Amino acid sequence: MIEASVSSARPLPTTSPVTRRTTTVRLRPRFEGSNICTWIGFKHVNYLVEEAVLEHFRRGGWAAGKLYETYGLCLDIVDINARILSATHIDDDVTAQVVPEEQPVDGEVALSVTLHVDGPTPVKTVAAKVRVALRVDPRGGGAAPIPAPAEPFAVDRIDRTALVQVPVAAAPPATAEDGDALLATLTGHSNAYGWKWRVPYFYCHFTERLQMSGYLRLMEEAVDLFLEDRGISIKRLLDEQDWIPVVPQNSVSMLEEVGMEEELYTVLTVENVFKRLTYTARMDCYVLRDGVPVHTATGRITHGYAKIESRHDWSLAEFDDRMIRGLNGQQG
User: Fold this and answer.
1) What is the rounded CA–CA span in Å between residue 253 and residue 215?
2) What would the DSSP string read from start to end of 44-100?
3) Are the beta carbons of 171 and 192 closer than 8 angstroms?
4) pTM for this one?
5) Cα–Cα 20 to 30 A to 136, which of 150, 191, 229, 252?
6) Residue pair 153/165 in contact by the 8 Å Cβ criterion
7) Distance in angstroms (rounded) separating the CA atoms of residues 43 and 269
8) Which positions ≥6 away from 181 have C-beta within 8 Å?
9) What is the DSSP code string of 168-180?
10) pLDDT one-digit tens code per residue, 216-237
């Protein structure tokens, strides 16, 4: 549910309201995200952040549809870092506030987004940082000239390798004979799991490019496959111990573009386990182009486990020995 919108028929304003004004909007979680009991998973929490950002641009006169159809500018969320402070449930009314940084950062629109669950005493549930770029679409032609306020954010290609600090351990080899060799190198000397995946059209936007929500879905799948590989699958722990993963923090940074039907090599690496309460894993994604691995995205996700007490309540679980063995690279 979105409280209000701005007609995309209006021309772009001559100033940059998306970098100066605060937006407050009411939202509802999507039913799809209510996977366990009535709790909303981290991916759909990020979707609420994304919806708030899109509405911020609409109310500033920079609606995504208008930017694309008139000026050939693709609104791309290229960086998201979210702290989840409290649970969101399926029927919650959520108030989102989007606050722009005083100045653009690295040629991108930088925003802070907070979510509160409404009630007699509103509860802050999410604090997120988001970066947005306007990628020029060369398809079709006939676009109107890019207005001056949008020019600082317009890029011919998403290439953020110089902006994002990537761990040295995530650096790929200079060359690889094939995808299997690449995965073997990336996972051979670390506590990691990797797989190859063909990018389908329904993970893309603006006709042909993998979008941020696609990476969030990949991150969710990466964790699922990793846990199954270690013998501590989500279904197994749910059946045997009433445990379910919870996510207090996650981030994804795009580095390079990925096109529809390219083969993406995703690696999930466990970086640390904290006091038998949480573990943090890093996700890195690559494409292989002419034998050269290209690092396209990096991100992190922190998990704890909740023991389901009832249809509404849960408590934080302490990792048992089986979980510790699995997270450290042994079969659970």
Assistant:
1) 9
2) HHHHHHHHHHHHHHHHTT--HHHHHHHH-EEEEEEEEEEEE-S--BTT--EEEEEEE
3) no
4) 0.92
5) 252
6) no
7) 19
8) none
9) GGGPPPS--SSHH
10) 999 999 999 999 999 999 999 9
